[in-house]
Amino acid sequence: MNGQSPSIIARLAEIPPTSALELLCVGIGTLLKSTAEEMSHPQVAAVPIPGPRTQGDSTSSGESTPIRVTGLHCPSTSYDEVGRHLKQQSVLSKRFLSRREPPITLEEYLLRLHQFCPMSTGVYLATSMYIMRIATVERVIVVSRRNMHRLVLAGLRVAMKTLEDLSYSHSRVAKVGGVTEQELSKLEISFCFLADFELRVDAKMLADQVRLLQGINPCEKTPR
């Protein structure tokens, strides 16, 4: 975080890792609530149904206005590329789904991770930023109770490698996280692709994330 404002870095340094862990829970809880609201109130766009057209329906001046369609043609290969991209995103997002909802809460899961693999304040905040971005900005994954544990685990692993000079061994993180080493590798790679490899963070971005999460109702912080 070279070149960053010393005051911002100092404020971030005052935040204990466990407090950043709680803020991560706040962010995931907000995404869960948003998912539940979207499922209970699906928004369906109204599609106008054309009826029989009468002379009174016309607003034309009577002059025929030529419509140029040149430049509107889209090669079929573009649709193929979009289709492949969407299919790839769907496959990647499904890798985070557990067969059933884990019996442990996300906060308990994170505290277990922190007990055996303590991480820094920056790692927890960056993970929150990554997940909120891919869920609300890129909209390439929907956070649910069946995928949030694996999603957070992968995010922490990626953030750790991005921000820290040293990180825990792959086998240690996999064991504490409750997945196989092969699963952790797949989750980590999938997370990077969903994030489109936009993993750079700086002190200002983390400080902005803190302000965002601190503005959320603390009563909704812990996903159950």
CATH homologous superfamily caption of the domain at 19-33 and 85-217? Cyclin-like
The whole-number mean of residue pLDDT values reads 81
What's the oligomerization state? single chain
CATH architecture of the domain at 19-33 and 85-217, by name, is Orthogonal Bundle
Gap from first CA to last CA: 34 Å
What is the count of DSSP helices, taking H or I runs of 4+ residues? 9
The parts where pLDDT drops under 50 for at least 5 residues are 44-62, 67-74
The helix-and-strand class reads: mainly alpha
Please write the CATH class name of the domain at 19-33 and 85-217: Mainly Alpha
Q: Report the strand count.
A: 0
The topology string of helices and strands comes to: HHHHHHHHH
Largest sheet: none
CATH topology of the domain at 19-33 and 85-217: Cyclin A, domain 1
CA radius of gyration: 23 Å
Give the % helix.
55-70%
Strand content: under 5%
What does the overall shape look like?
Answer: globular
Walkthrough of the structure:
InterPro entries: Cyclin-like_sf (IPR036915), Cyclin_PHO80-like (IPR013922). Residues 55-64 have a biased composition (Polar residues). Residues 46-68 are annotated as: Disordered. The chain is mainly alpha-helical and 224 residues long. It is 58% helix and 0% strand. The chain has a domain at 19-33 and 85-217: Cyclin-like (Cyclin A, domain 1, Orthogonal Bundle), CATH 1.10.472. The protein has helices at 6-13, 17-40, 76-94, 106-116, 121-137, 148-163, 170-177, 181-194, 203-214. Helix 5 (121-137) packs across helix 6 and helix 6 (148-163) packs across helix 8 (181-194).
